[in-house]
Amino acid sequence: MAVSPTPSTPQEPPPPRAGRGSVAGRVHWRFWRYPIGVQSLIAVALGAAVGWAFPAVGEGLKILGDAFLNAVQMVVVPLVFPLIVLGISRMESVKKVGRIAGKSILYFEIVTTVILLLAVGLAKAFDLGVGAPTSGGDAAAVGDLQQGVDFHELLLHAIPKNVFQAFAEGNLLGVIVFATLVGIALAALGEKARPVNDVLDSFAGAMFKVVGYVIAFAPLGVLGFIAYDVAHYGFGNLVSLLGFVGVVYLGLILVLGVIFPIIAAIYGVRYVAMLRSIGDLAGLAFVTRSSEAVLAPLLGRLEQFGVSRSTSSFVVPLGYSFNTDGSVLYQAVALVFIANAFGLDTSWGSLLLMVGVLVVLSKGMAGVASASVVVLLAASTTIGLPPEGVALLLGVDFIVDMARTGVNVVGNSLAAAVIDRSEIRGARRRGEPLPADLDAAADPVADPADAGTEAAAAAGDGRPVRTGPVTADRAGAPAPDERVDATQGSQG
Length: 492
Hints:
Blueprint: H1 23-33, H2 36-53, H3 55-60, H4 62-89, H5 94-125, H6 139-143, H7 151-158, H8 163-169, H9 172-189, H10 194-215, H11 218-233, H12 236-240, H13 242-267, H14 271-288, H15 295-305, H16 309-322, H17 325-341, H18 348-361, H19 371-382, H20 388-393, H21 397-430, H22 436-439, H23 448-461
């Protein structure tokens, strides 16, 4: 006799696990799949909301930002040292090292002067600071700062008596000087230096990976910074000094939208393509207020854009110390604001004196804590402005600091591209072969005339002809390496 099957009791579906299947899991998974720039923007919004609604929590979250910056600073010096050594040791001659260094310093000085003139002109045109309140500044905070730039100490800072101490203290300027000497020595050794170069190359590759891991946690650092800034400073200072903040931002926009494009056009650098390549990194520097946070991926992006690694690894770290375009604009606008606020002389003679003082002092910012504010304080003292005026601006410093840091990153990227372009043009004029790391990459231009010149030169000496630019915005183009994998998705 057939036995009818026992009807089975319907099973309830298991509860969703806290993984990709749950709502929280899907949101979490999608967030980390966003480009790093989008993640940072979301972190900005969340941080501002937390800092405004829960100030105590916002101030406590500062530890996230501090931890992120500590992690970044932990790897900056170990990365910069091998890159500079390799960049110099692989140059054809010591003469080329001196030539690139000379071009870089000259470029930094010229661009700094132009930006300073723009800044004082804007501040003068808007009568910035006239009628501004001269009380309520945080004078105690100013008193805690170093009161000036000691050039005797700066020289000793650049030539450390103990290189290991320079590494331990994160003395970037001292590390650059030591790395330059080591690179020159290895270049003089020639083939004997190959084993050392191979070790440094592998170490640099490993450090790029480490930096990639650190940058992946940038949104948490951004969340902590923004939550703390909103909770600690609030929005009151922004309202009272809105004119100052507005003029600084206007000046920085003019630098990005007028001065930099003109420089790029003179040298044939594709400025818009460069911005597409590094834009999210400039944005990350903006929200973290740290240029160091993007140094490693920036070098990788510039190489993808077509800048020689030997040039970028020398010019960009040097520019971090001596080419702070956004910072010098802020300092010039701030000096005019302080002079007007206290009813002091703002004739063009006095303004030109300000420009001259800042041209000198701005090159002494390396290794100084709160560098922009310290240089501003030193310049104020030098030209007879009351230091109390600097205290007026400390409450909005974090707001303008974001913008000037982003501009600093773009300015140093452009400097590397311009110097590299100048080297390419010089090599063509002299009939010299291009550097080895440029034979397989494109130079950062789209100049048909130069392309024809290069094709003719290559046909004459058997070198391969470069047929087109390799840029980060070129759809489907494979990355030359995986050194910037943590930020690769945001290149767009």
